[in-house]
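Quick review question:
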């Protein structure tokens, strides 16, 4: 089994969706499918590298697109309060655990991945790491090499979930109700 197949299987085991897009066109189709499935009329995009962002934007023609990184800090929360889908970039995927390594240089990226009801995380297939130990090593390298202020590093493993006192698992209490991870073979 390939690393991307193993990663997708681990992501699915965490109650998230995982899909593979080999080409830019497959990515456009995937983005449109996620927007349709989530019934999003407003989509936020943050932290996505320009070459991938262009592809995502081309899939969102006709939708209201918010770019939180271009807003003032006071306007970010207001804009994201009415956004149904947040699209962000994950620096790495952690194969064994099905987790994403997110690096947020400002609140716009972090809030885009956690405030909207649905989250679409994009990750390059070539950036997959074998396990959490490798992920922690990579996170450490990023922090050490980063100028001040240091980024916020998060490991995202599935949609937001918590359990109540009776042990019932609840989704979406502290963040998105759904997570789709798109593994990009072309990026």
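Suggested answer, residue by residue:
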């Amino acid at each position: 089994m390939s690393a991307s197949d193993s990663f997708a299987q681990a992501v699915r085991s965490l109650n998230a969706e995982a899909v593979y897009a080999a080409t830019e066109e497959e990515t456009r189709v995937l983005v449109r499918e996620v927007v349709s499935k989530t019934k999003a009329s407003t989509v936020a995009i943050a932290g996505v590298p320009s070459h991938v962002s262009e592809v995502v934007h081309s899939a969102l023609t006709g939708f209201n697109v918010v770019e939180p990184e271009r807003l003032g800090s006071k306007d970010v929360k207001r804009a994201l309060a009415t956004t149904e889908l947040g699209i962000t970039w994950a620096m790495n995927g952690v194969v064994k655990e099905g987790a994403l390594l997110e690096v947020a240089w400002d609140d716009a990226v972090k809030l885009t991945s956690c405030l909207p009801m649905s989250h679409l995380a994009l990750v390059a297939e070539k950036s997959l790491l074998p396990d959490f130990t490798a992920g922690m090593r990579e996170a450490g390298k990023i922090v050490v090499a980063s100028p001040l202020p240091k980024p916020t590093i998060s490991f995202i493993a599935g949609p937001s979930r918590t359990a109540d006192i009776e042990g019932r698992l609840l989704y979406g209490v502290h963040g998105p109700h759904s997570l789709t991870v798109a593994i990009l073979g072309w990026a």
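Why it works: The chain is about 35% helix and 30% strand. Residues 24-38 form the longest helix (15 residues).
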